[in-house]
Amino acid sequence: MSSFGIVNFGLFCLAVMLLNATPGPDTAYIIGRSVAQGPAAGLVSALGISVGCLFHSVASAFGLTALLATSATAFGIIKLAGGAYLVYLGIRMMLAKPAHPTDAPVPQDIRPLQKIFWQAVVTNILNPKVVLFFLSFFPQFVQVDSDHKTTAFLILGTTFVLMSTAWNSGTAFLAGTLARRAGRNPQIKVWLERTVGAAFVALGLKLALTKN
């Protein structure tokens, strides 16, 4: 991957895997649809979220490339700011307190699959936290002086989308049993969040102390 200007690709994949394993709004939406309407609805939700992530990947690739194409210094500043954000995000996740479990029933509303798909797309695209995450996360794995920044961003974005789609699709099929229980178990949720939080802190510090 170094020929495309990508660094620490294995670490990128590990971080994406840990991120997907952490219960969040996207996971909650997929589980909710799967439990309320079956695996097909959950799978459609997962695909909609993947389309939203693909949009963010392309937007960040061309947006960051256009903004930073003529300035390696600006790109370095973006990487440092992104690393600091990852450290901040990681610390928040590590310090998060367990939520009280709920046994509230999932609303049994039936929606057309097409509507479920587009709701998932719009929900993901309009989430400002997702935008901020993409802009801070991806630059950490691209060489500052690379001549192939756009290609690097697109490869990372495609990898992110493929891994997320695989994970979310599995979640959709398991939502009625294991995934639902894990999402409602505060101890499992806290353990996952602290694991990912520690990984983000380590990643942010590593990137702040090294030059690519």
What can you tell me about this protein's structure?
Helix content is 77%, strand content 0%. It is mainly alpha-helical. α2 packs across α7. The longest helix has 36 residues. It starts with 8 loop residues before the first helix and ends with a helix. About 3% of the residues have low confidence.
Which structural traits does this protein have?
212 residues; mainly alpha; 8 helices; 0% strand; globular
* Low-pLDDT sequence parts: 102-107
Count of individual helical segments: 8
Instruction: Please tell me how large the radius of gyration is.
Output: 18 Å
**What is the helix fraction of residues, given as a range?**
over 70%
Shape: globular
Strand composition percent: under 5%
Offer a quick outline of the entry.
The protein is an all-alpha fold and 212 residues long.
